[in-house]
């Protein structure tokens, strides 16, 4: 079954050539894109959809979320808006509420959040554990996460539960907890920050997870200058996320990871993606991550929602893109790229085609997964020009219309 999607005013492919086509069309066949080009040259297909001059982008790739949680932290948010600072301790409030919730309800809550994200144009997403914080509840979160998200990250090292010895807890994470979650996860992450895990504890967790075959990511430099970025670089992590406070040398270290990468062919030695989380920066009143400086220096950047109940209770990638343009000084093309191709790079899903059956996401090209986001607007510029407006008109996810 093939579908011709035509009368596209602007097709922002985010492919390796950064092509933006005008008056374009796309053909979707099964779960894959089988053709793109000028609408006038489009081949016949079984079915046709006329988009009436709207813009099409790749579906958002949200590479950093925490969707496995119950409860609400409105009071903490209100206190923050009244001048309190964010501190990692709030995670314990969500841990208690999450542990007290049934499997059925935790699944329903997570699925509801995925639906919210998809209805706003997200077509591929990662989510993390990290609100269970014992073997039983981390395993349950990982298992449920594997049924609702495209990729799952083990974040047992999110916070040391109150009353536990940090060293003993770190050993638990590296040993029995890791063994129990392993069947359900692809990645491991640590919150390497004052009040959470030290560099030494974080390194121990990441090395154990790497030995178990997991890819690595780090929550780093969110609340102050710290060792997170350097640790991510040292261990060749796929991404370091937050990056609000970069010390002298952090930017250079990140740049250094990309020296073997050929951006024009998408080949070579991958570096560590800097994932910026603008909705979180605003909700915690932290300085916005220096996305402009990172891009200018040659670092690959992703934008993600960091949807979680503490620091960023939104899955709106459009809000992140608008903020990146309006306040972080990215161009619309750069911001959309970071929220699509950048997320795919961070999740190692930027390559793949018919030959290997592992379909790339985050860009529109033949053989890639048919993940398309149609805007109620003639160009992607409207995402920043009309911030906060409901601009998602239609969504195709793996070739199926999801909205
Ligand atoms: N910083 C660490 N983890 C989350 C927040 C967790 C919470 O406060 O519930 C984040 O990415 O911002
Ligand atoms: Zn996070």
UniProtKB/TrEMBL annotation:
What EC numbers are recorded for this enzyme? 3.5.2.7
Q: Which cofactor does it need?
A: Zn(2+); Fe(3+)
Keywords attached to this entry = Cytoplasm, Histidine metabolism, Hydrolase, Iron, Metal-binding, Zinc
SUPFAM superfamilies reported for this sequence: Composite domain of metallo-dependent hydrolases (SSF51338), Metallo-dependent hydrolases (SSF51556)
Which InterPro entries does the protein's record reference?
HutI, Metal-dep_hydrolase_composite, Metal_Hydrolase
Q: Where would you find this protein in the cell?
A: Cytoplasm
Enzyme class label:
hydrolase
Q: Does the keyword Metal-binding apply?
A: yes
Residues the entry annotates as binding Zn(2+): 64, 66, 219, 306
Q: Does the keyword Mitochondrion apply?
A: no
Name it. Imidazolonepropionase
